[in-house]
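Please, structure for the following, as tokens.
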Amino acid sequence: MKDLIIESSEAILKEADIFWNNPGTIDTIERAAALLSEALANGNKIISCGNGGSLCDAMHFAEELTGRYRKNRTSLPAIAINDPAYITCVGNDFSFDEIYSRYVEGVGNEGDVLLAISTSGNSGNIVKAAESARLKKMKVLVLTSTGNNRLSSLGDVVVAAPKADYSDRVQEIHIQVIHILIQAIEKQLGFE
């Protein structure tokens, strides 16, 4: 068992080291934070989406903004598309590929930001959500992994974790980035 724990912890540290030592990482996250902060400062909202663990990250991001992160402050407008009745309605009546894009079409406005999270960057419903956001003149922040993928081409800012053998390594980078983004938003909006 110890070998498994050591092997896993070494893999986590290796992926984090690759990501955080990439010369462009800090600048990219800074641009992402500015994109989100500007939207919120201008009275717009952030809509987030993902599948599986990435949806959990999207929900965590939205609840930290509407609730609190480290300190009490004004609630910030963020929504994770996670209503099971809505998702099953659209999935049944249209298709699973449209569960997020139809929501963005109905709720998104020009100036809002879509936080699109996909470890592969090729999830059809996340790609369609980003396409819908583009049509609504929203900004798109992508959290994905490196390599060729359809989602990256739709992002105003793309934060890409190192491509890994398993999606959990990518998700571990994503949650680090999400926490930093929340902290940066709070600082840029004067809450820190």
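The radius of gyration is 16 Å. The longest helix spans residues 167-188.
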